[in-house]
Amino acid sequence: MIYLNGKLMPIEEACIPVLDRGFIFGDGVYEVIPVYSRRPFRLTSHLLRLQHSLDGIHLKNPHCDKEWHDLIAQVIAGNDGDDQYLYLHITRGAAKRDHAFPHNVTPTVLIMSTPLLPPARELLVKGASAITASDNRWIRCDIKAISLLPNVLLRQMAVDVGAVETILLRDGFLTEGAASNIFLVKDSVLLAPPKSHLMLPGITYDVVLELAAANNVLHEVREISEDELRTAEEIMLTSSTKEIMAITRLDNKIVGDGEPGPLFTRLYQCYQHYKATVMRGELSC
């Protein structure tokens, strides 16, 4: 069951006009929200990021927070599985094809659910491989825009060589992954690139930094050079659907000793404990 423009319906019945600006121009934004035990994870943070994206493309939010909460609850209840991930998709709506914003057009609002499956155990035990590429995307990566063709092409580069992610470099510095944020460990210190218009402000990125601070993990948020990335003791990626994953091979070269490192293991355990606490309702999510 999905929500589309005021109605809950089976996804097979959903239709969007061909003149929708999301289809014609990629004129819209999206948000992905993990759901554990039927509880949306960090919903307030996700809705704040959605608002940031809407502001970035000058599109009025079609719903207040309470309405989003109610709609999200309906979609969760309408689908099987305790663990899901929700995809929110908002476009400027359908109008005559013209680059300029149309007037008095109702936005298209879609919410759909997909089963949320944990990463394969082998990836958690052995780590995953990644490649690097030049970050050739636009410079407003902080907007979660639906026009994702550059990300798609960059991610496909990884798929084509059997890797899980493409790690992006711009002007000699790390930005993020094609669909993730990237952390690394250098001299036993957890490093994260700073939030800017060149990267998406990840919700899991925030959680990892909070857990690092709460568990006395030495960490710094600063620009990270390509050389630091390539000589890192550990590399890990974070995202709403993959949570935390160790990268043990980069561009077909071993990272560290080729196994998930001690800091990844510690942060992964902290994350799972935090998530379980939220799922039990002992912490606000």
TrEMBL record:
Cofactor(s) the record lists: pyridoxal 5'-phosphate
MF-aspect GO terms: catalytic activity
GO CC, any one term: cytosol
Domain of life: Bacteria
Keyword field: Pyridoxal phosphate
One GO biological process term: carboxylic acid biosynthetic process
Family per record: Belongs to the class-IV pyridoxal-phosphate-dependent aminotransferase family.
Stated name of the protein: D-alanine transaminase
Organism of provenance: Nitrosomonas cryotolerans ATCC 49181
